[in-house]
Specification:
By secondary structure, this protein is an all-alpha fold. The chain has a domain of 217 residues. It is built from 15 helices and 4 strands.
């Protein structure tokens, strides 16, 4: 019964013929940390406000949404897949949660219960959307790019329809009740940051310590060999996209109380930021390689870049997405010789 897992581990280790870790992989694992440290030094030199505790907490809080999604995206990219719909998915989930809470507050007779149920609904919807992606990709044999490109438009179109082209907003008393989920803190750390850390720790444990994590890496390294190793490829793909959907739901759960509204621009370009965080964190675009620690560092690194640009006005803040795009292309170019 242990043969599939042992063979899956062998698939993951195929790129280490001499038993050691090739220098490009060592560089990929250390590079993001070195880059983050250098960026922090540059930011502190350019603006004194950068090195303050308040600014650091602000950066981490703003990173938490993309970081949580990036943890799930890391699994998908290691698997050899992609998901372009996470921003639109988050927007639709946020809209559905707001509509549900507004309705449930009156129907259930308890605003607190309505908020709690709405938070749970966010995770359930994320899991269902991820399940739909996984089934279409694994059972329907449709390319992940095509599936998620289609749902990208579907999710945002439905949010726009529900909002009638405007915005869906939580009622004031419900927004006040939900606000501590974003603005509150635990031991001095904002709650979204704590959630980000917990999700990252759980994600790292799943990826590195479970058979499922080994199977994800094996499929990304060589799907054909993984099939010969008796890995249930379809099941692993479905569960991986469900995991990403759950991460999107958790991120949205903490994002809704920030503005207490959802509009057609909610979550815009989140997919770019999540993919960039994973790639900058050292994951291979072709799959089979990546780490949660690298993804966390990558997400923080991108937020630090945006924060430095905002504090120093080196370039327009409207070019932040362009900077992230250049980063993705540059890292992808540098990865050409890694596999």
């Amino acid at each position: 019964m242990s043969q599939p897992d042992s063979t899956a581990e062998a698939v993951v280790d195929m790129r280490r013929p001499n038993g050691g870790t090739p220098w490009p992989e060592r560089l990929a694992s250390v590079g993001p940390i070195v880059g983050l440290v250098l960026l922090c030094l540059v930011g502190a030199a350019l603006n004194g406000d950068f090195a303050t505790l308040d600014n650091a907490l602000n950066v981490l809080t703003r990173t938490s949404f993309i970081g949580i999604i990036a943890v799930g995206m890391c699994f998908v990219i290691i698997l050899g897949g992609i998901d372009l719909s996470v921003g639109s998915m988050a927007a639709l989930i946020a809209g559905c949660v707001i509509m549900f809470i507004n309705w449930a507050a009156g129907s259930l007779g308890s605003p607190l219960l309505a908020v709690a149920a709405g938070a749970g609904l966010a995770v359930v919807l994320g899991a269902l959307f991820g399940l739909a992606h996984g089934v279409l990709i694994a059972r329907g044999r449709i390319e992940p790019f095509i599936v998620t490109l289609g749902t990208l438009g579907i999710y945002r179109a439905y949010l726009t329809y529900f909002a009638d082209g405007g915005a869906l907003t939580l009622q004031n008393e419900l927004a006040d009740l939900y606000a501590p989920v974003y603005y509150g803190s635990i031991l001095g750390l904002p709650i979204p940051v704590v959630a980000f850390l917990v999700v990252a720790i759980i994600g790292a444990a799943i990826l590195n310590k479970t058979a499922f994590g080994r199977h994800v890496q094996a499929i990304g390294s060589n799907e054909t060999v993984a099939r010969y190793a008796a890995v249930d490829v379809e099941r692993v793909k479905i569960l991986t996209y469900m995991l990403l959907g759950i991460c999107v739901g958790i991120a949205t759960l903490f994002y809704v109380p920030r503005l207490a509204s959802a509009s057609p621009t909610t979550g815009l370009l989140w997919e770019l930021e999540a993919i960039a965080a994973v790639i900058v964190g050292g994951a291979a675009l072709k799959g089979g390689q990546g780490s949660i620690v690298g993804t966390v560092v990558g997400a923080i690194l991108l937020s630090v870049i945006s924060n430095i640009l905002n504090l120093t006005s080196l370039i327009s803040v409207y070019l932040n997405a362009a900077v992230q795009g250049f980063v993705i292309i540059t890292v992808a170019f540098l990865q050409k010789g890694r596999r």
